[in-house]
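Retry 2 of 3 after timeout on previous attempt. Resubmitting structure tokens to design endpoint.
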């Protein structure tokens, strides 16, 4: 970094009192000898690779790009995957709505009453059934 600085810029050598600063030099010019530890040049990172390896990697990447553009690459399988994922999203939304409805009904019906407990158990059963349906839909997509 010091080699990129302009010649007129200075770098502090040490912290000095105001009396010392009047009598001594405040910094070091680029042309002067730099402070200890910064005199060695900055080493750049170099990659030691064989040209044949680089060409092999390049060919592999070009083939991958060609497969992508031709439509050979599919992340989730082929048949109607996006439609299935939309269906799963809709199931999740229905489950969330049912959950909120269940919460509202619990507030209206006292949880302490037998009727409230029965309604709560029925709604919980529906929530669990829908959750199982979502889980099996996701598993079917993963198997394809």
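Retry 2 succeeded. Sequence:
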């Amino acid at each position: 970094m010091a080699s990129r600085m302009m010649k007129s810029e200075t770098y502090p050598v040490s912290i000095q009192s105001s009396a010392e600063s009047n009598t001594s030099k405040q910094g070091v010019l680029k042309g002067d000898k730099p402070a200890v530890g910064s005199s060695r040049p900055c080493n750049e990172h170099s990659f030691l690779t064989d040209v044949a390896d680089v060409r092999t990697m390049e060919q592999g990447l070009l083939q991958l790009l060609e497969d992508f553009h031709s439509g050979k690459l599919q992340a989730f399988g082929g048949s109607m995957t996006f439609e299935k994922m939309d269906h799963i999203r809709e199931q999740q939304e229905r489950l969330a709505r049912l959950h909120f409805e269940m919460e509202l009904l619990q507030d209206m019906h006292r949880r302490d009453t037998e009727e409230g407990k029965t309604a709560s158990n029925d709604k919980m059963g529906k929530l669990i059934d829908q959750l199982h349906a979502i889980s099996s839909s996701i598993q079917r997509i993963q198997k394809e």
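Attempt log closed. DSSP finds four helices and two strands in the chain.
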